[in-house]
Amino acid sequence: MNAVLPDVSRTEVSSRLLPLDWVGMQGIDLPVVLDESGERQTVHARADVHVDLPQPQVKGIHMSRLYRLLDSLGEGAPLAPGRLRAVLQEMVDSHADCGSQSARLALQFDFLTRRPALVTEGLAGWKSYPVRLQASLSRGVFQLNLRVTVGYSSTCPCSAALARQLVQQAFLQTFAGQTLSAAQVASWLETHATLATPHSQRSEAEVDVTLEEAASGLGLLSLVDEIEQALGTPVQTAVKRADEQAFAALNGQNLMFVEDAARRIQSAPGLAGLQPQVFVRHIESLHPHDAVAWASGPSSL
Fold it and tell me: Which superfamily, per CATH, for 17-156+199-295?
């Protein structure tokens, strides 16, 4: 048991003397701690971690060193840009004998938060938001990008206009030449206002932002809040009939094409300075295909 174990990554030379862009591991299970508005939660993350291998004669990197350094991210302190940079620097330093000068790390997890009902007091439910963090340290330059996916409802403006026209035509045909009281109109609408209804669908927005190294945290909750406020119709958790009615009203007052949704997010005041990259997808109920849009550039546009 005291025998020296062989390490061919050190004692053997690569049979093909070529540098490699990245080498590492993917799909590592890891608990990480989030701190959002003073509330901590531990979530299950999947991690990918790599370093570059510029020296062509080196047969292999030190996978176990990367694993142990990555494992330290699951020990107590919440994720923050500065902490991610420090771990990446340790990964580069631990591979000095390989000539490594860059490291990168990706984390995927679901951010879970409690959302209140629209109307009913005391009613709330849990909602999760898929998150992907991509951190890199390349020759001393640190970059951290965060992507969050937010679900919302979208009602088509064109479909709404067509539905309103059909209701209008039915009303005129039914009461041509008649003078009606407000009560009679209300009675007809109670039964026939849904003669035609616009199509709506569950939709999703993926928003990528760049975080500064000096930031104290990830700011996930404030980012999600900003996106949902811009869209106006985030999907709900626990609801009663009053909440469902309020949600129907929100949809009716926030008709949007996929283009509208992308522009709303891109121009959200709270995203200014974060270099947002926006992708939205409306999972169509009219078609068997989806409607999509991308937006990038200054959020003030």
Answer: Urate Oxidase; (3.10.270.10)
